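Progress report, Aim 2. The chain analyzed during this reporting quarter is listed below.
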Amino acid sequence: QVQLVESGGGLVQPGGSLRLSCAVSGFTLDEYAIGWFRQAPGKEREGISCINSGGFSTTYAYSVKGRFTISRDNAKNTVYLQMHSLKPEDTANYYCARARRCFGEEYDYWGQGTQVTVSS
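Predicted structure tokens for the chain:
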């Protein structure tokens, strides 16, 4: 069955870095775009980055642009989100999800999320 499993979250100090991983199974990764989303308590879910199926097109939310980098390794069935210069406002549960395209298509399968906490 289709699965997406996030890992790599944790507690980090402001200014620190983390790399999140989204390991997928049950489908052919290079046929899908993968998006990263986050949701903080009491806030709406926010789409923060997406990489297309070929890996040559990426998008970022303004809130993370220049600090986060999305990448994919189809051979390892994994998509990454490298996060630098983390801020307390980046604290949230981070999810990955798949869609045929980054925009205009339904994200039909989601991971369970990994918690990122940025605090001193």
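DSSP finds no helices and eleven strands in the chain. The two ends are 40 Å apart (CA to CA). These observations will guide the mutagenesis work planned for the next reporting period.
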